[in-house]
Amino acid sequence: MKSKIIKAYGADSPKSDLSEMQITRRDLTAKDVEIDILFCGVCHSDLHTARNDWGGTKYPAVPGHEIVGRITAVGAEVSKFKIGDLVGVGCLVDSCRTCDSCKKDLEQYCLNGSTGTYNGQDVHLGGHTFGGYSESVVVDEAFVLRVPENLDLAAASPLLCAGITTWSPLRHWGVTNGTKVAVIGLGGLGHMAIKLAKGLGASVTLFSRSPEKIQDALDLGADEVIISTDSSQMDKVQGKFDVIIDTVPYVHDVNPYIATLAISGTLVLVGYLGPLEPVLNTVPMILGRRSIAASVIGGIAETQEMLDFCGKHNIVSDIEMINMQNINNAYERMLKSDVKYRFVIDMKSLKV
User: Fold this and answer.
1) Residue 74 is part of which domain span?
2) Cβ–Cβ < 8 Å for 206, 231
3) Torsion-angle region of 236 (φ positive above 0: left; ψ -120 to 50: alpha; else: beta)
4) What is the CATH number of the domain that holds 285?
5) Where is 5: in which H helix or E strand?
6) Hey, CA dihedral for 301, 307, 308, 310, is it positive or negative?
């Protein structure tokens, strides 16, 4: 297959900083579109992949799966998009499209393994896929999303991961007008969970260990903030919440939150990968038909639904814009939670 060389930013090893490099993009197939990348959000998954924190990273690794750009070329059989369209690409660029999950628009749970925007198997060129820390990307139109033109384009890019990661469980567990929702943790995921739950008409409470985050949460639209280390505050909300979205990205004790669920309520983990410690106490779960569940991103149809909803309600992420050349510093700051609430790369900085 024909291909072309473009500029990108990536890591050559788990210990190396990200730096400028050249990568190969395929020429368009009949169903492909080529996208000039304008903005790319920075996700914790980018950092974990670059540093091989989860194992299995293929190098060179070019992260980035919160992509917003404009189409510059289309394949001969493309029907959904045209040159000039404003589009996005999230965490997936392909799936088998034939399994039960894919047939139900749940490509994120593809039973044969979906293809990640980066570090996935590249069936066209061989090797592995490269993400959005690059000048452009070529994607099958079936995995390209339409971005509402009225949104702030830079602030819209985190919707492609942080947005859908929180939207999907809110929708799946039936959050609507009057639902009582709590969010654990105020970061990239947490601030989007607050905005989207409020947009759906829910009453929203933030659980936080940090009193200094109270005003920030209220400014984002939260109705209440509970300091989770304060037992008297926790006692006040026993049996209250229909859905809790837990965005904390590290191991933590979820037991104190289970008792704050209403009868038949569900706590959904969206931030942490790994075994829970300490172990779960099932007593409050059994006595209240309470559940602990987990969720990851969303399918293409659901992601488009989320983007359309955000366009209608003008919901975007709170961001700090950076140049591509400052990504390593951004990673260090991200580890310290020193960002409100998502870094976004202005890709013009790579193209100079």
Assistant:
1) 3-161+319-351
2) no
3) alpha
4) 3.40.50.720
5) strand 3-10
6) positive
